Amino acid sequence: MKIWDISQPLKDGVPTWPGDTPFTFKLNWTKEETGSVNVGNLSLSTHTGTHVDAPYHFDDDGKRMLDLQPELYVGDALVVHLENRESITPDDLKGYDLSNVERLLIKTSSWKDRSQFPESITYLSPELAPFLKENGIRLIGVDVPSVDQLDSKDLASHHSLLNHDIHILESVILDEVEEGVYELIALPLPLADSDASPVRAILRR
Ligand SMILES: N[C@@H](CC(=O)c1ccccc1NC=O)C(=O)O
Ligand SMILES: [Zn+2]
Ligand SMILES: [Zn+2]
């Protein structure tokens, strides 16, 4: 069994949404101070690195992280490579067999320098959601920090996906992953009130 780690490493300087909380890890207590252990402290935005959005992120009445079923984030996933596009539309997926896949990961290769927050990305057209729903998709993953255009205020694709019961996984790292079906494991933390959660995402086969 081979494993592909498709998570963005979390370390100081990992890019965040402009103006959002910077990621820091520091020792709150050192082994020297306690005489026995190092104890860390994390400060981070819920949208840091590879993460899932809860509906509450963009809908005040939406489900929070702990309300979501873990099984959404574990199971077979199809990876497709659709590069050099401004957006992804249903036409782009016409050539793929989506039967029997509930999870779809789209490798857009549009975020080239991951040491910086991107200036533009390939985004999902809002018409994609009804098409995905018809094909039984329940989780969509992208290799960029948003499913919408970065300057979007209405978050049309986020809302369209939610309206079609499709959940969102963002900033997966698919550089080393070829098209095909894999088992995805990308479990969020059980954060009761949260709008999102970082995940450790892997593919295996
Ligand atoms: N909706 C975006 C994230 C987002 O909009 C955002 C994330 C962190 C801090 C600010 C954000 N948006 C607007 O101020 C996303 O999850 O794709
Ligand atoms: Zn997010
Ligand atoms: Zn999002």
From TrEMBL:
Keywords: Hydrolase, Metal-binding, Tryptophan catabolism, Zinc. Pathway: Amino-acid degradation; L-tryptophan degradation via kynurenine pathway; L-kynurenine from L-tryptophan: step 2/2. The keyword NAD does not apply. It is an enzyme of class 3 (hydrolase). Binds 2 zinc ions per subunit. Gene3D superfamilies: Putative cyclase. Homodimer. Belongs to the Cyclase 1 superfamily. KynB family. This is Kynurenine formamidase. It comes from Pseudalkalibacillus berkeleyi. The lineage of its organism: Bacteria, Bacillati, Bacillota, Bacilli, Bacillales.
